Every structure is written in structure tokens, then in C-alpha cells.
Amino acid sequence: MVNLTYNKNRPLPSAEELPSSDETPVDNQLQNDIPNLLLNLLASIWAGRDDWYFGVDMAVYYNPDEPAFVPDGFLAVGVNHDTGERGRLSYVLWGEKYILPI
User: Which of 23, 48, 49, 95 is most buried, by CB atoms within 10 Å?
Assistant: First the structure.
């Protein structure tokens, strides 16, 4: 888990200010291959849509006072697919209109 110290007197941290991964290595090759296969399938099936995001081994922040969790893969529907030149560094709920990933 990624630990985060948050000062309630400051604004909520942005994705750039937060760790993007827990740096834990994958247990085996399938743990990496399956989420990436899902990502490629969704990119093919939903090529014309821009309202979804599939993250792989990315930190998900749901509360600035709690550590992030880093799932092997997650899907968020109802968010912008592209978020700029560098893409998402992590998935921060308060930066994504509190849309929960599945």
C-alpha cells in the first residue's frame, strides 16, 4: 500500500503530487498479461468512445487520509479517456468527479 500524509488545511493533492504505484512487482506473468489483454480488447471494442478508462497497476486514491490501493486492473466508465499529454499518473477520485472504478 502507498502511505500518504495529508494536511487538512491544504487543498486536496493532485495526481502529480501523489505516488502513482506501490512499486510491488507482479507475482507472475499472467498478473501482467491479463489486465493488458483486457485493456487492448476494450481499446478495440470501444475505439469510438472516449468516456472510459482502464488502468493497469495504477494507484487509486479514494480518500486523502487513507493509503491508495493498486489493483492489477480497473475500469472507470463516465470519465475522459484521454487526460492530456502524459495521461493519468494515478486515479484520484476527487479529480474524476468521484466516479468509482470497477
Answer: 95
How many helices and strands (H and E) does the chain possess?
A: 1, 4
b/e string for 59-72 if b means 16 or more Cβ within 10 A?
Answer: bbbeebeeebebeb
Question: In this structure, what C-alpha cell is assigned to residue 45?
Answer: 471494442
The alpha carbon dihedral of 17, 23, 29, 34 has a sign of negative
Q: What's the confidence (pLDDT) of residue 21?
A: 62
* Count of residues in the chain: 102
Q: Which of 61, 68, 69 is nearest to 91 (CA)?
A: 61
User: pLDDT at residue 4 above 60?
Assistant: no
Please state the pTM of the whole predicted model: 0.74
Asked if pLDDT for residue 91 goes beyond 90, the answer is yes
Q: Which of 96, 97, 53, 43 is nearest to 75 (CA)?
A: 53
Query: What 3-state class would DSSP assign to 65?
Result: coil
